[in-house]
Design a protein that fits this description.
The chain has 446 residues and is of the alpha/beta class. The protein has 11 helices and 21 strands. It comes from Papio anubis (Olive baboon).
C-alpha cells in the first residue's frame, strides 16, 4: 500500500526554553491512553497508514483522526517567533481536546474561552485565571458569575446591556471593548454578530465608567481565515482611537487583543509570515512597545489545522450518467457534514483527498460527489464535486490539515459516532522533558 503524500511536517523545537514537565499529569489525573509514541524513524503519516491497514483487516472500518502533537508545538514556536511582541491565547473552540489543551498549557499559552464549560476545561488543568480571557461579548449571567467566582477577570463586551450584566455579576472584571471590523473578505466573517462601531465606543466607555467598571483596553476579530492582512492595519488603528477615548473617560487602557484570523495552512490565501509583518508594522505605528501596552491574540486555526489528518472509508458507491453521457460517481463515506466536515459547506474550495490505493497506471478521473453516512440529503462533505479515480467500497481517503473546527463541532446525528482520535508524540516533544515507557503493552508517561 503506497503512503499518502506527506502532509505538513513539524519543525525542530529543541531550542524552546519551555519545560514540558506539566505534560506528565494534571491534578493527579493520568494522561489519556490514546498516545502513540513515535520512534526516531517513524512519522505520523506512517501511523495513519498502519491504522488504515489494521482497520482494513478487521470488521470495523470506522473513521479516525490522527493528531501530531509535535506539529502543535512547532506551530506555537512559529507564532512566537513571528510575533514576539504578541502573547498567544489559544481559541479553545477550535479544538478542545484534553491532549491539545494540556500541551498548550505546558507550553505557556494563554486561553480564549467562550463559555463556562471551556473555562472549566482550562481551569481544571491548573491554568492560572490570569492566563484566560473570557472573550465572548454576549455571555449568560450564570457564566459571568462562574468567571467571577474563579478569578477570571479579563472579559470582552460590545453593548450597554452586557455592561449592565457585568456590573451586577462581576463588578471586579477588567473589560476589553470589542470593536467591529471590516471582515467581509474573511472566509468566516464575525462582525455581523459581534463588535461595536467606532462611533458607539465613546458612549460605551462613559457608560462603563458610570457603572464603576474598569475598561482596560480594546479587542477585535478580523474573521476566521482572514484573506486580507490589511484588515489588521485598520482595526489596530481604530483601537488606538478607542484607547484615546478610554483614557479621556478615565480608564487605564493597557491591553490590546488583536483576535484571530490567522491562516491554518499556506495552500491558498495570504501567508502567515506576510500577515505577521503587516501586524508588526501596524503595532509599531500605533502601539509601540515603549508605551507598555500588553498585546494578546487568539490564534486557533493557525495552531490546529495542520495538526490532524482524517481518514475515512467508502461505505457505498453509485455511478450515474450525466446529460450528454458523461459518467459521475457518488461515494458515501463513514464521516461527513455532521462529523469532521461541518465547515465543508462554507469553504470556498473543496478539499481533494489523498487516495490510499495502488493503481497499475495513471487512472482516469471522474467528477465525484462525496456524501456523509446519514439519511440527510444535504450531508455532503462539500457543495462542489471533486475529481477522483473510480474507487471501490472499502477504499480509504485521507484528508490532511483537518485539526481546526472538526472534532469540536462533531455530533452523533443518526447514530453515527464522531471519528475517534489518536495522538502521536515524537522525539521533538520528548526532548523537552516528555518520555515514554512501555508497560504491559500500554504507553505511560514518565
Amino acid at each position: 500500500m503506497p503512503g499518502p503524500h506527506p502532509v505538513e511536517g513539524s519543525v525542530g523545537v529543541s531550542g524552546m526554553s519551555t519545560c514540558l514537565e506539566g505534560l506528565k499529569e494534571a491534578h493527579g489525573r493520568p494522561w489519556p491512553k490514546e498516545l502513540i509514541a513515535l520512534g526516531p524513524e517513524e512519522s505520523a503519516q506512517q501511523m495513519v497508514l498502519r491504522r488504515i491497514q489494521e482497520l482494513s483487516d478487521s470488521d470495523q472500518q470506522d473513521p479516525f483522526m490522527l493528531a501530531d502533537l509535535d506539529i502543535l508545538a512547532s506551530r506555537h514556536q512559529a507564532f512566537c517567533q513571528a510575533l514576539p511582541q504578541v502573547s498567544p491565547f489559544y481559541a479553545v473552540k477550535c479544538n478542545s481536546s484534553p491532549w491539545v489543551l494540556r500541551v498548550l498549557a505546558a507550553l505557556g499559552t494563554g486561553f480564549d474561552c467562550a463559555s463556562q464549560v471551556e473555562l472549566e476545561q482550562v481551569l481544571g488543568l491548573g491554568v492560572a485565571p490570569s492566563r484566560i480571557i473570557y472573550a465572548n461579548p454576549c455571555k449568560p449571567a450564570s457564566h459571568i458569575r462562574y468567571a467571577a467566582r474563579h478569578g477570571v477577570q479579563l472579559l470582552t463586551f460590545d453593548s450597554e446591556e452586557e455592561l449592565t450584566k457585568v456590573a451586577q455579576h462581576h463588578p471586579g472584571a477588567r473589560l476589553l471593548l470589542r470593536l467591529r471590523t471590516q471582515d467581509s473578505q474573511s472566509i468566516f466573517p464575525l462582525s455581523t454578530k459581534f463588535g461595536a462601531s467606532l462611533e458607539a465606543c465613546g458612549h460605551l466607555l462613559t457608560s462603563a465608567r458610570d457603572l464603576g467598571l474598569a475598561v482596560v483596553g480594546a479587542s477585535f476579530h478580523v474573521g476566521s481565515n482572514c484573506q486580507t492582512p490589511q484588515s489588521f492595519t485598520q482595526a489596530i488603528a481604530d483601537c488606538r482611537c478607542v484607547f484615546e477615548m478610554g483614557r479621556g473617560a478615565g480608564h487605564d487602557m493597557s491591553c490590546l487583543d488583536i483576535g484571530g484570523g490567522f491562516p491554518g495552512t499556506e495552500d491558498s490565501g495570504p501567508k502567515f509570515e506576510e500577515m505577521a509583518r503587516v501586524i508588526s508594522a501596524a503595532l509599531a505605528q500605533d502601539f509601540p512597545e515603549e508605551r507598555g501596552v500588553k498585546v494578546i491574540a487568539e490564534p486557533g486555526r493557525f495552531y490546529m489545522e495542520s495538526v490532524c489528518t482524517a481518514a475515512v472509508n467508502i461505505i457505498a458507491k453509485k455511478a450515474v450518467l450525466e446529460p450528454g453521457g458523461s459518467r459521475k460517481l457518488m461515494y458515501y463515506l463513514n464521516d461527513g457534514h455532521y462529523g469532521s466536515f461541518r465547515l465543508g459547506h462554507r469553504e470556498p474550495v473543496p478539499r481533494v483527498p489523498i487516495v490510499v490505493k495502488e493503481f497499475c497506471s495513471e487512472p482516469p478521473l471522474f467528477p465525484c460527489t462525496l456524501y456523509g453516512p446519514t439519511c440527510d440529503a444535504s450531508d455532503r462533505l462539500f457543495l462542489e464535486d471533486v475529481r477522483l479515480p473510480e474507487l471501490d467500497v472499502g477504499d480509504w481517503l485521507v484528508f490532511p490539515s483537518m485539526g481546526a473546527y472538526t472534532s469540536s463541532m462533531s455530533c452523533s446525528f443518526n447514530g453515527f459516532l464522531p471519528a475517534t482520535i489518536c495522538y502521536t508524540m515524537g522525539p521533538q516533544l520528548r526532548c523537552l522533558g516528555v518520555g515514554v515507557e512501555e508497560e504491559a503493552g500500554n504507553l505511560t508517561l514518565i
